Amino acid sequence: MRDPIRAHPWARSLAAGRQGGPIWLFDLDNTLHNASNGIFQAIDQRMRVGVAQTLGVDMETADRLRIEYWQRYGATMIGLHRHHGADPAQFLRHAHDFDVPALLSAEKGLPAHVRRLPGYKLLLTNAPLDYARRVLKALNLLPVFDGIWAIEHMQLQGRYRPKPSRALMRQTLAVLQAQARDIILVEDTLRNLKSARQMGMRTIHIYNAGTPFSALHRGRDQYVDRRISRIAHLGKSHPVEHFPAR
Questions:
Q1: How do residues 85-100 score in pLDDT, each as one tens digit?
Q2: Would you call 187 helix, strand, or coil by DSSP?
Q3: CA-to-CA distance for 164 and 187, rounded, in angstroms?
């Protein structure tokens, strides 16, 4: 994996070196591992404390703002930065400062499942870079991925534009210098898949009962090409060649 892992530097060489294989964009939490098995609880709790300390409010107010900013901007940090002038890097460090390996839960053989996929594998996550690297390292996936596009890289015209921003998806296409039909987004969050599909990318929905919003998932939405429950199912019964062309 390239080091330092940045969005634009590796993407240009990636586009130049491609030989027709697809580009896989993987989400991180509740896609490559089960974040609902302890990770999200740890992040939420530390975010509550972080919001309360940053703004000098009680925990109930902090939790309300945490959820409100996440729903509105795709990340609590963006709301704190935009409305209260909070330091994004400091807040993210605090929110993700916990023992990642102790809380991780993932399917058996995950590195092999990802490695066997043809083409390039890139992480596209609204999480911070340091946390993403620690998760991939603990999952033995760090050598498998060709790069990481974390929230630090999701800035356009001085503002953070994380998933599901269509502006981010347009930037992804421009930076990768690839056709939308050559990109496959693997995600657990439907609104992120929808914006990718609107750009012409192919989409795979990772569905796991018990994860956030799973009760809202009924059938397969029109903007989802495939719906699976495990990474192991990628490339097996439905090879990438059988995906509908856009």
A1: 999 999 999 999 999 9
A2: strand
A3: 11
